[in-house]
UniProtKB/TrEMBL annotation:
Pathway in which this enzyme or protein is active: Purine metabolism; IMP biosynthesis via de novo pathway; 5-amino-1-(5-phospho-D-ribosyl)imidazole from N(2)-formyl-N(1)-(5-phospho-D-ribosyl)glycinamide: step 1/2
Localisation per UniProt entry: Cytoplasm
Keywords assigned: ATP-binding, Cytoplasm, Glutamine amidotransferase, Hydrolase, Ligase, Nucleotide-binding, Purine biosynthesis
Active site, renumbered: 86, 194, 196
EC number(s) per entry: 6.3.5.3, 3.5.1.2
Organism in which the protein naturally occurs: Celeribacter arenosi
Protein name, as recorded: Phosphoribosylformylglycinamidine synthase subunit PurQ
Amino acid sequence: MKAAVLQFPGSNCDRDMAVALRTSGVDVTMVWHKETALPDGIDVVGVPGGFSYGDYLRCGAIAATSPISGALKAHVARGGYAFGICNGFQVLTESHILPGALLRNAGLKYICRTTPLAVETTDSPYTRGYSQGQHIAIPIAHHDGNYTADVDTLDRLEGEGLVAFRYLDNPNGSARNIAGILSENRRVLGMMPHPERAFEAAHGNEDGRHFFSGLVDALVSA
Ligand SMILES: NC(=O)CC[C@H](N)C(=O)O
C-alpha cells in the first residue's frame, strides 16, 4: 500500500505522519508543495498538520491554492482516499474538498493538550479500527479549530453519519462538538486532533494507532 504525504513550507507534522504510516506498513513518498502531480499508484494522500505558509491569510488558505493542491483535488474527484490532520483539515475545507470552515478557537487561545473524543462512526477506513461510541484520548494543538458550517450542512453531516469524531469536552467551540468529518463517499476525512501524536508507547498514549491500522486494513482489502 502506498501513501503520499504532502509537505508545505511550515508543515511540522509531516514526518510524524510518515512515521505513523510507515510503522503501519505503508510505503510513503513525501511530496513537496511545488509538485503538480502525485506519484503513480498512490492509494491515499495525507495532508499533515502545521503552519503551512505561516498561517497567513487563513490557516490552510494558501496551501489550498498551491501547485500540489490541483493534483489533490483531482485525486479526490476520482474517488481517491485522502485525510487531513489539523492544518491538513484546514487545507481540505479551504480547498472545498470538505464542507465548513475552521474558525479561531472560541477562547481565542492556542490550545495544546490531550482531549477526549467519541468515535461517532466505524463506517470509514479511518475509524473502522475503533468501536462505535468508543472514547479515546488524542492530542490537539491549534488556534483555529472551531469547526463551523451552516445548519443544513451540519444536519446533513449528522443525518448521513459523516461525523467521524466528536469532542467530549469541546475545547474550541466547534459546532455540535465536531472534531472530525467524512466526505459523502467516506473516503476523505478531516480532523483537528492528531492521532499520529498518540501512536506509540513513547508518546504515553497509543489511542491513535487504530486510525492508521484501520486505514491499512481497509485499503489492503479494498
Ligand atoms: N497543529 C496544527 O496543525 C495547527 C494548525 C494551525 N496552524 C492552527 O494553529 O490552527
